[in-house]
Structure formats: structure tokens, C-alpha cells
Amino acid sequence: MLAMAAAMTLATSTPANAQDDGIPGPEQDPFIWLEEARSDKAMEWVKAENERTLGMLTKDPRFAQLKAEALAIFDSQDRIPFVSFRPDGLYNFWQDKQNPKGLLRRTTIESYSTEHPEWETVLDIDALAAAEGKEWVYKGSSCLPPDMNLCMIALSDGGEDATILREFDTATKTWVEDGFTLANKSQGGVSWLDKDTLLVGRDFGEGTLTESEYPFTTRLWKRGTDIVNAEEIYRGEPTDVSAGVYLLRDSEDVIHGRIAYRSVSFHDSEYYVEKDGKWLKLEIPSKASPYGIVDGHMLYSTDVDWTVDGQTFPADSIVAMDLNEWKSDPNGAAKTLVWAPGDRQTKSGGANTASSLYIGLLDNVVGKVLKIDFEDGKWVQQQVALPDNATVGIAASSDKTEQIMYTVSGFLQPTTLYYTDGSAAPAVLKTSPSYFDPEGMSVEQFEATSKDGTKIPYFLVKPAGMKMDGTTPTLMYGYGGYQISMLPSYLGATGKLWLENGGAYVLTNLRGGGEFGPKWHQTAMRENKQRTWDDFQAVGDDLVARKITSPEHLGIQGGSQGGLLVGTALTQRPDLFNAAIVAIPLFDMLRFHLIGRGASWTGEYGDPRNPEERAWIEPYSPYQRIVEGVDYPTPFLWASTADDRTHPAHARKGAAKLKALGQPYYYYEETTGGHSGGVDNEQRAQLQALQFVYLLQQLKD
């Protein structure tokens, strides 16, 4: 089983006042009060802004149609219901018009293979929310192997990343009477050691959360006891981003040890293995991590070149050690190469079945999947037979059998789901319906030259009848951070609401992302983060130079880190764009460490409390760069009150400053939804319609 450290989850924070280290406080920042997410004053401001924006955009005669089209796509009954494998069937979480908060349900592979599967409801979130008077949002579960019947269900009130946890029995479809319950919302999660024991990383009160408001202690909790009295088995440092413990299990559910981790920054960690009752530090690079157990071997993955025992494993490679040798001597076990990337290749996700390792692969931004096995004393790989020139991913796998599912899609090609039980090549199992008419549309790939000469690839999706005369309304999307890759995928609602209305769509592959491996990311972070902004603006200039569009018709869009990307473009090159969707953004980069989960991201940007690092950040921080005397394109900023990750304060303050300077803008804030936007399809459809009405007004009318 691939045993990865638990993904970090997020909570709320309270803004600080003026600092002695040059960080703006109330005297320098008149809008700092907007950092109080739910204060009466802030919510009155939000209500007024929402009324203003809705009043302007929903009156557009196109709004109702666009919303209806988006909602029809989101509620479509024939969209693919993606699943996960469990011993008692295939599980799916489903939302539609009748079930806006969603159903956790299951079926069999035989039924799933039919056109209309028969589903058994396991947990009805709408019914639960109605019964308890809460805006419950399902956030997943952690279940006890091997049966996977006892599960700790994570629920968020309104979409926050912080959750409560309750024990649920999927066999009886009931909450466990007097079961494990963590009723106080918190970041962190649990791992099942056995039926009566959990490893728990949560907010246990004062002195148990890091500066980034993640847990850094882990407790061993026995059934029937109070969590307050649970034994603490590991403690990181308050200065860590997060810290905790997880279990190293193989595909037969044998536990081979406990691994502790300290995320000393967002991209750097220390790992420890429990040996002889003590925590032994693993001697691996800070940008390497345990990858799991496959074929009797312990695997590591590294994001940097790793020289050890007279050999060098290149960045992005997978390294193996015999499991028994590793358990005996974790740092001295002999190491062998499992896989290393070729030129312009990088791994993109991974999974395993009972006997094989599978890794997703990007080869010049084209998807492939490799199957890797240990045979006759060596690692052997073969490419899985899937369509070429598409985005390919691993959708689900079973570590008890050889069952595995893959997705294949493209901008204009609806997603197709492939399946095999290991006895034959993957075959088509399900295909998503077409949500827009691609007739006459086409896709091309170009390169722009960034400020330092680096070639930056991007995809252009052309609407039917497009002329290269600079008049096409064009939406350019970007992210460029955290080693996250932007890949071609079926455009769905964007195809219906934008391409069918004559707009072109551009997807950028910026440095800071992961499209070409760890180095593509590492070359554009911290002191070099401006390279990401330069890359994005270079693509915009290239679109104009090729007469694909012109500044009058060019709009940009991004969310979270992508919202920061759009904010830097808006303030550094206001001449190049006429629309900017700044979604759930980072925006005030001199106070980002004090807002939401910002302190965890200093590894990506630097720490503004450090004068040297603040000097990297201050020149591009969008909030500070909004100044008098500049004619900015009218942006659309949106956020969520329940976003406890980036926090709505960033978007709020950007809008408030634009308003104070008399600049035109739109601002909209959902009161639920969290960092992902809407919590149900109705909210998601409204957000889509608002944004595309805005784009049509700015770029086409």
C-alpha cells in the first residue's frame, strides 16, 4: 500500500496587530478589520457588496441562461460517478438537484458496469443536515482495514477545512453508539491502529497547534476513554507547518511500523521511524519522503538529486530498499533505482494494486501510465495500453486485487473511464456525455518566451470560426505554484458557457508548477517567484503578438495561488488585460502569514517578517501595488466566508482598496463553500454564471 503522510487540512486564525518587524498593522492598513471573517462590520460590508454585484450581473439577460446551462451540467444524471474500491463494493459521493449536500452510496462492479447502476445509500448528508440543523459538508472518511466498515466520517459546517469526526458503521449504515467522536472542529485526522485504537492528530488545546494552526502532536486514543487523557506518542515543534504520525501498512494490511513527520516548511520535511521504542530520523533529503510498500520493498520518492552510498538518484525518481532490510536498518539498507524521469518527464500521481506499482507520467505534458513490478531481482516497467496524446490519470485502484481504473480526457474530448481487473488490457467502462458542441473547434500548443529567455508552453482552444485578427475574446488561465501541473481536461461548463459563445481558452504551463518535474517548480519559488508572474505575462504578450487576441479582448483567471498570479498581472501589467477573475486569492503578501493558513506557505514565497525575504515579496504584493493614478482593468474578485485556508480577507481588502481609489470592480462572497467555492451545484452554477457574464461584458460586448 502506498503509505503517504496525511494531507494537511486547515483552520481559522485571528489576525494580529501591527508588528515590530515592518508588517503593516491597523495604522498602515485601513482595511485590516476585514480580516475578521464573521464580524458584524465585515459581514455588513459583504452583504452590501454582494447586493451591488448581483444587482449588476444578474440583470444581464444572459445570466439566467448561463446559470441554467451550468446547473444542467453539474446536475447531469449521466455524468460519470467516480468511485473508490472497498471490500464491500464501489463507493461514490454524489450530488444533484435532489441531493444538493450529497449521498455516500455504493454498488457492485457488475452493476457499475451497466448503463444504470443500482446504488445503495450508505449516508444521506441532506437528511443528516436537516435533522441536526447544520450546513454539513461531507469531507471524506478514514476506515479500519481490512473490512473498511468502521469509519471516522469528517463533516464540515459550511465548507470549512476544519471538521468534526464521528464513528460510522457502513455495514449497518448507522452511527456507532458511544463511538469515537471528536466534536470540536479542527484540522488534522485519525488513523486506525485497531478496532479500539486510533492515532489522533488534532487541536488538543493550548500548545498543540503550530503557528500555521495545524496539529503538531499525536495521541494514542483507546475506545471508551476521554481524549483528554490519551497518551501523547509524538510531538513536533510549534515552528513546524505541521507534524504527526501515520501507519506503514502493506497491501495485506500488515502494519510494518509507525512513521512520524515534521513539515518544517511547506516543501521540506523530516521523517522518523519508530525503532526500539524511539524515533529514529531517516537520513534522506528534506525534499524526499517515504512512498510506501510494493513487492516487498520500501519505496522513497525524492524531489532533489540524492547522493547516497556512492550513487546519485536524480530528482523526481523512486528509490527502493528491501523491506526486511529496511526494517532492520532504515538508514543502512541498500538502495536501488525503481524509476527516474527522462527529459521533460515527471511522475504525476501514483497508486498500487495487490502486486504492482502504477505511476502517472507526464511526457512533455502528455499523459501516460507505467506499470512497475519487481521481477527476477530487478524492477521492470511497461506502459499501460491507453490512448495517446491525451491527459491520462489513475482514477481508482484496489490494493486487494488487480483492479484499477484510468481516466482519459482532452479539452474537447469528454472524459472516458477505463477499467481492468488485471486479466486483460484496460477497456472503456464509462464515457462522460458531451456538454457542448465541439464542431469547428480545435486545440493548438504554442510557446512564449519569458523575460529570462525560458520557453513557456501553453495550450490554445479555438472556438468555431475563430480568426487570427486580434478580435477574439480570450480567457487565459494560470496557477504556477506548489509543483501543481495544469493539464488539458474536458472543459465542460467552460465549453458551454464560453467556447460556444465565441470565446477562446488558454491554459498556461508556468514555472512554479509541476509540468516538467520538481525543478520546474523550484526554479520559480521564494526569491525567484517573479519568474512565475513573468511567464504568465509573457504568454499574454505572445497571444497579442500572434493576433490571437488583443488587450481589449484578453481576460485572465486564477484561484488561490492562481488568484495571486492574476493579482500580480493586474497590477504589474494593467495595459495587457481587460478582465481579471481573482478567485479565493492570496493578495496581501505582507500580511499573508497572519491570515488564514498563510504561515504555512512561507516555503513557497518567503517570510515577510524577515527583511531580506520581504524584499522579494514587497515588489509584487498586489494589495500594496494598487495605487492612485493607474487605470486598472475592472476585476472580479470573489471569495468564501467559510474559506479558512486563504481566508476571504485577501479578496475583500483588494476590493475595498480599489473602491477607495475610485476604481471599478466587482466583489462577490459566498457565505458557505470553503476554499473550493460553492458547497452544492446551485452555488457552483451561480458562480460560473456570474463569472462568464462578467467576461462576456468585459471582453465581447
Automatic annotation (TrEMBL):
SUPFAM superfamilies named in the record? alpha/beta-Hydrolases, Peptidase/esterase 'gauge' domain
UniProt keyword annotations, A-Z? Hydrolase, Protease, Serine protease, Signal
In which domain of life is the source organism classified?
A: Bacteria
Q: Name one GO biological process term.
A: proteolysis
Kindly indicate whether the keyword Hydrolase belongs to this entry: yes
Instruction: Specify the Peptidase S9A N-terminal domain's residue ranges.
Output: 28-421
Q: Which InterPro entries match?
A: AB_hydrolase_fold, Pept_S9A_N, Peptidase_S9_cat, Peptidase_S9A, Prolyl_oligopep/macrocyclase
Keyword Protease found: yes
Q: Which terms does the record give in the GO molecular function aspect?
A: oligopeptidase activity; serine-type endopeptidase activity
Gene3D superfamilies referenced in this protein's UniProt entry, alphabetically? alpha/beta hydrolase (3.40.50.1820), Prolyl oligopeptidase, N-terminal domain (2.130.10.120)
Q: Which residues form the signal peptide?
A: 1-18
Query: Can you name a GO cellular component term?
Result: cytosol
Which positions fall inside the Peptidase S9 prolyl oligopeptidase catalytic domain?
497-700
What name goes with this protein? S9 family peptidase
Q: What is the lineage of its organism?
A: Bacteria, Pseudomonadati, Pseudomonadota, Alphaproteobacteria, Sphingomonadales
